[in-house]
Amino acid sequence: MPVLEWTALRLKGVDIADPSLLKNLSDVRERLQTNSVFYHCIEDPSLIYILGLWPSLEAHRRFLNSPERDEVLGAQESQLGFEGTVHMELDTMDSLPLDAPVMAMARLFIQDDCVDAFTRGLAEYRQTFIDGAKPYNVVDGWRIDAETGKHESLLISGWTNAQAQIKFMAKASEHAGFAATRANCQRVEVRHAYNMEKQD
Predict the structure, then answer these.
(1) Do 191 and 171 reside in the same domain of the chain?
(2) Which of 14, 61, 121, 134 stands the most exposed, by the fewest C-beta atoms within 10 Å?
(3) Based on the structure, what is the number of domains in the chain?
(4) φ and ψ at 65, to 5 degrees?
(5) What confidence score (pLDDT) does residue 177 get?
(6) Residue 11, domain CATH
(7) Whether residue 113 sits in one domain with residue 67
(8) Using an 8 Å Cβ cutoff, are 167 and 70 in contact?
(9) Which of these, 194, 71, 51, lies nearest to 136 by C-alpha position?
(10) Which stretch of DSSP H or E encloses residue 100?
(11) What whole-number distance in Å separates Cα of residue 26 and Cα of residue 178?
């Protein structure tokens, strides 16, 4: 199955509104044919996220280890610092809530002995979350490049604005499935972002 690349990059010496930033990102997308989208973090305006689809994890790794890498990424690396990348299986970019004004991206870190309980809780709660995010999509999956013995679940959802997701999650704490899911997480990181190419 294809895999989603979710990469966090930090602005360095460039403003988010600088036209050259989006041009360089777009040029890389065209070269790599990953159908990537570019999101700007609301909580930390110095962060941007690239979400793109690769045929496989191995395909992305081959590119990163190839001589072509420096040629393709060189222009954007003068503007952006690498923060981290995660991968999860995803059938198509259309599964993402790309039509939503705001995307919520959650990373849930689960203890090794809590994976089964977490999975049961999420299965019980998932439909409630999907209903709450409507009309926007919700996708989730396991990180496939986690270190041995570590487990990370990724949850991506669309919302009208960041506050809508925050309010929904506050109310969701009353749901037994959500409580079970949250109780089995060592740590949860949630960021909200908007599409850099759809700014009004």
Answers:
(1) yes
(2) 134
(3) 2
(4) -100, 5
(5) 72
(6) 3.30.70.100
(7) no
(8) no
(9) 194
(10) none
(11) 38
